[in-house]
Specification:
Two copies of one chain form a homodimer. Chain A is of the alpha/beta class and about 350 residues long. Chain A has a single domain (about 1-355), classed as Luciferase-like domain (TIM Barrel, Alpha-Beta Barrel). In chain A, about 45% of the residues lie in helices and about 15% in strands. Chain A is built from twelve helices and eleven strands. Chain A has helices at about 20-35, 55-65, 85-100, 115-120, 125-140, 180-190, 200-220, 240-260, 280-285, 290-295, 300-315, 330-350; strands at about 1-5, 40, 70-80, 105, 145-150, 155-160, 170-175, 190-195, 230-235, 295-300, 320-325. In chain A, the strands form two sheets. Chain A has an eight-stranded parallel β-barrel, surrounded by seven helices. In chain A, strands 5-6 form a two-stranded antiparallel sheet. In chain A, helix 1 (about 20-35) links the parallel strand 1 and strand 2. At the A-B interface, helix 1, helix 2, helix 3, helix 4 and strand 6 of A face helix 1, helix 2, helix 3, helix 4 and strand 6 of B.
Chain lengths: ~350, ~350
Amino acid sequence: MRFGINFFPTLGPSDRSAAQYYDESLRLTELADELGFDHVKTVEHYFFRYGGYSPDPVTFLAAAAARTRRLRLVTGAAIPAFTHPVKLAAKLAMLDNISRGRLDVGFGRAFLPDEFEAFQVPLDESRDRFDENVEAIRRLWTEQDLVWEGRFHRFGPVTLLPRPYQRPHPPILVATAFTPESGERAGRNGYGVLLVPSISSREHVQEMLRVYRAGRAEGGHDPQGGQVHMSYTLSVAEDGDRAREAGRRQIEHYTASLVEAVESWGRARSSAYAGYERLAEKVRKADYRQQLAENKVLAGTPEEVAAQLAEVREWFGDVTVSLQVNSGTATYREAEQSLRLFAEHVLPRLGAAGSPVGS
Amino acid sequence: MRFGINFFPTLGPSDRSAAQYYDESLRLTELADELGFDHVKTVEHYFFRYGGYSPDPVTFLAAAAARTRRLRLVTGAAIPAFTHPVKLAAKLAMLDNISRGRLDVGFGRAFLPDEFEAFQVPLDESRDRFDENVEAIRRLWTEQDLVWEGRFHRFGPVTLLPRPYQRPHPPILVATAFTPESGERAGRNGYGVLLVPSISSREHVQEMLRVYRAGRAEGGHDPQGGQVHMSYTLSVAEDGDRAREAGRRQIEHYTASLVEAVESWGRARSSAYAGYERLAEKVRKADYRQQLAENKVLAGTPEEVAAQLAEVREWFGDVTVSLQVNSGTATYREAEQSLRLFAEHVLPRLGAAGSPVGS
């Protein structure tokens, strides 16, 4: 297993200023680099407390790159439908060079109707735009004098500058929350996947993994290879009850912000997003004790969290885990403590179950 | 006068790797911060050696923000026509917060037909798109629940996150290379201007300044206020001939890359860009001795460069000057030497003519 940190802010100006949020997140990023964690990841969302402090993951990760030496930088996920492929390919290539090859690119389809409306992108085109733009970006990275004649974009012959640092291109991961076909397709293309175990049953995640590995085999890739990323809210303290209470506040804050953001699914419908209209209802009735028991949040003493992770590993294998310590309600001190305790006391307890962070 | 540095790369992979270019530029940025310079600025261009290593100024400036404490960060210029206003407003607001209010936003219309073609934006719509998008961005920064019903974009009600750090919003500057009306309009709106004295006669720059100040007065702003930015290639050495030779190589490299990039004006025509089709011819016949004599490039001993700047100040007033030391042919050592000599030996010679850098 590898462990990194994930920044998924669920904040608005009345919770914490954006300047304070970035400052604390960059300090935690430096700390994670020092402690030997594997990566730093952040999201792309707009307008709402749910991710809205992170509308451009590349901007945050460029600052993170300048303050770290070893951490990999992960977009989790950048949304190709909302940025022209030339622009997105180019700025990711800049980040890949600025960081000397430390970039992993997660791409997502997005799912909030209000975001699609603002960018005037029809929800029903989401999958086609995703496929076209990811492929255009991959080819901009790898080909000279590219001529692109797609349904949504036409350009060329052009040669993208700068060329990516990593050859043939930075590793690509695809966010696949619910839809097995997305996982299967990611596997066939040899891409990694970003899964969201906190909003799916263990069985569903296992099914996604099975389909993903089958896709890899079908595409001629090692079925056991490929990066599999999962994000978890983390709260560790020597006092387990305190850690769980802090974890509860984090989760409730996250849930409230998600409910706020998915409210527009009450009026939007799209065959490309079957079932999303029930998302608000689904997250609203989540029970914290049950989430803890099902390892959808990691909270407790170092020993308890290590036991949770041993189980996660049994279920899903040697995945890459991104820890959320700074989403909304945790103070900087709590977030720092969680990271330090994790590095110093959780990992050693994982023993054979977990390789050292960053290895 | 204030002095900063400008990064306008004229490089491709056969000249210098992108990773090396960013690394050297970020080291020079840190040095400029230490030496007390006022700002760091970079450009937005695509595909060609002419600026192509800088397709996203915000990505570079975010890394620069993380490695500096005092420098202001200037987009010189970001192109609103090539990025959705929600996206551009949001990432600029991120940078403003990450840097705790050190951002100045220069916006430009762009002028290379190949760039417009790639983004499928008609050249003839350039001015209307510029006006609409800059205004949309300004209102996204300053208003809640904004409803935007423009010709090119419709969205809202939305409230942008994050809110900018600077209130009401980061200072706006407008790139106005040739067209007096652009300068006049920038003045009326209370914006600053980015002028390009290297490709205009002194008289034309003076006319631009006159029109700009008249526009400010008309808009109810202090006519002598407003940021006026100008970029100059700089080459200083104790040996004046060596400095001039290095300056010549820089300028010739810059000219060659501009000729390459504007070649497409040979086939493109647009009433919105009258005269641009003769641009390649115009830059090709520039004479270095004349450019030096007309202070379009700053090169020589510290004493000689100080004399040039005293003249520039006489012509144009207390403008903000961005020095280009790292565009193409200069080695890192030469660029560093130019910056150090400038700070230590040029500025003191300016005496009453120049305030200390960064003041």
